[in-house]
Structures are given as structure tokens and as C-alpha cells.
Amino acid sequence: MSKIDWLSEEVIKEYKAGNSERRVLLQTLKAALLQKSKDKGELTEADEIAVLKNELKQRQQARVDYEAGGRSDLVEKVDIEIAEIKKMLPEEMSNEDIERVVGEVFEASEDKSFGSIMKQSMARLQGKADGGVVSGIVKKLSS
């Protein structure tokens, strides 16, 4: 079942349950996925994950902005949204596992440049690791 279909079912459940906050979040995520499918056509699971990760990053940035502005009410709201989106994403690998994969890529690669190692590592990790974490590990290995 695609994420769009799953979200459609969840929106109906939340509407019936009267949970408007979660329903609005789910509708927003569904709209983002529908827009991507309109732009690209049929979405793969990787495409769906990329859209959800983008939505997650937007909320994480908003959280930083809300904290800086002293808006604890909005920080609390966005924390709930972040947790909800994280539940929809595949579980991320541990730092040790990421280091192992990046190390394997580094050893097997002819081109030891940062960009090359990042590209190969992210291709192998496919949505199971945060790019920032991978970047830090690649920088550590490259130095």
C-alpha cells in the first residue's frame, strides 16, 4: 500500500475520531505526496521517503525558529508533528552501522573525494541514515 493510500485511510480515521491536529498533519503530508506524484508521475518508496524527510526537515527548522522566538506553544506542537512523521519513516541505522557502511564504501572506492564517497554512501544507505550524520563520518574518514 502506498503512503498516499495509507494516509487517506488514516485521515478518515482521524476525522471520525475527532482528532483534528493529527488529521491536518496527515492531510498536509498527503498533499505533499500528491504534489510530488503530479510533478513526477508514479512515486517509488524512495520518492515517498524523500518527501516525508523533506517535510520532517521543514518542521525541524521551524522548531529551531520557534525556540529562538520563544514560542514554546509552537515548539510543543511541532515536536508532536516531528514524532508523527518519524513514525512513518523507516528506522534509521545506528551510528556504528553507518560508520561500517561508509568505511566499506571508502575502502572499495577508487575516488576518495568527499563528494564521491557521500554519493556512494547515500546510495547504499537509501533513506536509512541522516545525510548530516553520513557527512560527518565521511569528513572524519577523509581527513
Would you spell out the secondary-structure blueprint of this structure?
Layout lengths: L2 H15 L2 H21 L4 H24 L3 H17 L6 H14 L5 H12 L5 H12 L1
CATH fold-level label of the largest domain: Hypothetical Protein Yqey, Chain: A, domain1
Number of DSSP strands?
0
**Helix proportion:** over 70%
Count of helical stretches? 7
Structural class: mainly alpha
The portion of residues forming beta strands comes to under 5%
CATH superfamily of the largest domain, please?
A: Uncharacterised protein YqeY/AIM41, N-terminal domain
Shape: globular
* Main pleated-sheet profile: none
CATH architecture of the largest domain: Orthogonal Bundle
> What count of domains describes the coordinates?
2
Q: What is the mean pLDDT?
A: 88
Order of helices and strands: HHHHHHH
Radius of gyration computed on alpha carbons: 18 Å
What low-confidence regions span 5 or more consecutive residues with pLDDT below 50? none
Distance between the termini: 44 Å
CATH domain class name of the largest domain: Mainly Alpha
Task: Give a verbal description of the structure.
The protein is an all-alpha fold. It folds into two domains: 3-88, Uncharacterised protein YqeY/AIM41, N-terminal domain (Hypothetical Protein Yqey, Chain: A, domain1, Orthogonal Bundle); 95-142. The chain has helices spanning 3-17, 20-40, 45-68, 72-88, 95-108, 114-125, 131-142. The chain is globular, with a radius of gyration of 18 Å.
What is the compact description of this entry?
The longest helix has 24 residues, at 45-68. Helices cover 80% and strands 0% of the residues.
